[in-house]
Each structure stands twice: as C-alpha cells, then as structure tokens.
Amino acid sequence: MNVNIHSSWKPFLEDEFNKPYFEKLVEFVKSEYQHHTCYPPGKQIFSAFDHCRPENIKVVIIGQDPYHGAGQANGLCFSVNEGVQHPPSLINIFKEVESDLNVPYPESGNLERWASQGVMLLNATLTVRAHQAGSHQNKGWETFTDAVIQQISLQKKNVVFMLWGGYAKKKTRLIDSSKHKILTSGHPSPLSANRGYWFGNKHFSHCNDFLKSIGKLPVEW
C-alpha cells in the first residue's frame, strides 16, 4: 500500500504516518492485497481524502467499513461506483434526502458529487477483504481515522458532523462540540430505519440551514 494521499493532508497527518502502528498497518494491508481480493481497489483506499481537501471540508459523514461485494466500494463511505445497484443503507439515505429536501431520488449511487462540495465521506476502516465484513477492523485503521477526526475538529471550525448509528456516535468524544455542529440519529440500515430511528431525522436540511447561517453554500444533496 502506497500512502498516496493528497499533499494538502500532509500537514494534518504527517505525524500519524511516522508512528509504529501505521507502519504495521501498511504492512498488513500490503499483505492482504497481495494474498486476497480486497476492496476498495488500492488506488481508491484514500479516495475520501483525494476528493475532499482539508480547506474545503464543510461536512463529515462517518461510516464503519467499506462494502465487501465486487465492484461496490470506491473509497467513500456509503458510496458505490456508477451503475452499481444501490445497497439498502444508501437507498434509505436517498429516501431521506428525497423526503427532507423534496428532490428526486438519484440514479447514481456514486457520492463523489457530495465529496466535491466539501463532504468528507470517511469510513473508520478503509479496507476490507472480499465478502468478509469487518475483516480489517482492529488493525490500526481506527486509530488513524480517529486521528483524522480529531485533527479536523482541532484545525477547523463550523464543520457539520453527521453521526449515524451507535458506532459513529461514539466519535462524539473526538469532536469539540463548542465549535462544530454535531447531528446524530439512528443508522440508515434497514434494521435501524425500519424501527423508526432513521427516517425523518432531516439531517440534510438541518445541515444546509446551518451552513447558510454561517455564510457558506449549502450542499446539493
């Protein structure tokens, strides 16, 4: 694994790249990609960083694991490649956008269009072995992505953090709530959404209202 992360992130994360845990993580990921089918493709491991530079961040959405089916994961949480069937969580995200903002359900599940507007789509674990959910958890990725969240909290202000589900909500401890907007709800997965913990959270309009209140352009969700 080459850490081909956009140069704008180097001042934020240089210290992490030099820590022993990260060196071990790199070796682990290299070995996994050599001996197993893993996702996303190697060049897209750091897509969340390539598509959203630090100076542009307005929103952070935190996922847990990349999709582990063929051709799905593209390095942005909840996002899938063009032409790929929308997974259940993404369907529920789009349904909430549709009802919250009265916009049509989109054809493409590729969320690069969000990332290009300053939405950081960050999975806590950036890689996974094919068809084995959670297979790369507790190998160092979470330490790295926790540091990313902390650095964004420290060095930015007025970022909207969308924390969906119990796992993401635990990241609240890394965020300075006195200088950022934190929105929490249930997870968009069918299990949570069908119990009434997702639909109607209006996170997308709440986010845009906040951005407009501080003089920033709203996101075209």
Automatic annotation (TrEMBL):
Query: Which GO MF terms are attached to this record?
Result: uracil DNA N-glycosylase activity
Task: Kindly state which keywords UniProt assigns to this record, in alphabetical order.
Answer: Cytoplasm, DNA damage, DNA repair, Glycosidase, Hydrolase
Q: Supply the HAMAP family for this chain.
A: UDG
Record lineage: Bacteria, Pseudomonadati, Bacteroidota, Flavobacteriia, Flavobacteriales
Tell me where in this chain the Uracil-DNA glycosylase-like domain is found: 49-211
Q: What is this protein called?
A: Uracil-DNA glycosylase
Which EC numbers characterise this protein's activity in its record? Answer: 3.2.2.27
Q: Which family does it belong to?
A: Belongs to the uracil-DNA glycosylase (UDG) superfamily. UNG family.
Q: Which SMART domains match?
A: UDG (SM00986), UreE_C (SM00987)
Top EC class, one word: hydrolase
Q: Where does the UniProt annotation locate this protein?
A: Cytoplasm
What is this enzyme's catalytic activity, as reactions? Answer: Hydrolyzes single-stranded DNA or mismatched double-stranded DNA and polynucleotides, releasing free uracil
The UniProt entry, under SUPFAM superfamilies, shows:
Uracil-DNA glycosylase-like
Question: Which Gene3D superfamilies does the UniProt entry name for this protein?
Answer: Uracil-DNA glycosylase-like domain (3.40.470.10)
